[in-house]
Description:
The complex is a heterodimer.
Chain A: E1 4-7, E2 10-13, E3 19-25, E4 31-37, E5 43-51, E6 54-57, E7 64-66, E8 76-78, E9 87-94, E10 104-105, E11 109-113
Parallel strand pairs in A: 2-11
Antiparallel strand pairs in A: 1-3, 3-8, 4-5, 4-9, 5-6, 7-8, 9-10, 9-11
Chain B: E1 4-7, E2 10-14, E3 19-25, E4 32-37, E5 43-49, E6 55-58, E7 61-65, E8 71-76, E9 85-92, E10 99-101, E11 105-110
Parallel strand pairs in B: 2-11
Antiparallel strand pairs in B: 1-3, 3-8, 4-5, 4-9, 6-7, 7-8, 9-10, 9-11
Amino acid sequence: DGGITQSPKYLFRKEGQNVTLSCEQNLNHDAMYWYRQDPGQGLRLIYYSQIVNDFQKGDIAEGYSVSREKKESFPLTVTSAQKNPTAFYLCASRNGVSGIYGYTFGSGTRLTVV
Amino acid sequence: GQQVMQIPQYQHVQEGEDFTTYCNSSTTLSNIQWYKQRPGGHPVFLIQLVKSGEVKKQKRLTFQFGEAKKNSSLHITATQTTDVGTYFCAGPETSGSRLTFGEGTQLTVNP
């Protein structure tokens, strides 16, 4: 079955550490997105990529970094510069860089700073 | 920048009652999308509306897109406990490269 796989499902980070969240899709979608969701809140865009080797900052990119070396993969690194990283991180993809198709979301990674 | 606002933020209903959430955009939208997120889950795409004044139905769910293409609504008839979750609307920015999500309406249904 096609879909988006995010791993790990739960992640614990010590202060000062960088961590990388994995996002892999086998939908052959061009565009991929990273969102952050805080409890009871909406979705805030961190980074997005419409094509391999290219990506753009979203609304809350500070303290995060991404890469898009393969169409299928869009990993997110939460750096030590992100002061409040505890949140639910969602990866999504969409078919067509300017299409009007709905997003497919992964099941998310819950990151907690300990 | 573009803003998408939803009301109400929370809605508690008795099972069998109807439910409506409203979405308003600060700009005219080419389309509007609706998503549902179950508690502890991830958003799932429900539907996309494109045409001015468009109405679409999915069983007990009715989606409308305003004539000016700046507002939308989701109405659920005779809610069930399976309807529990947060409903988000989302509209594309002018470039079409990204969506702006509303804050969502969290629906709870008392059996």
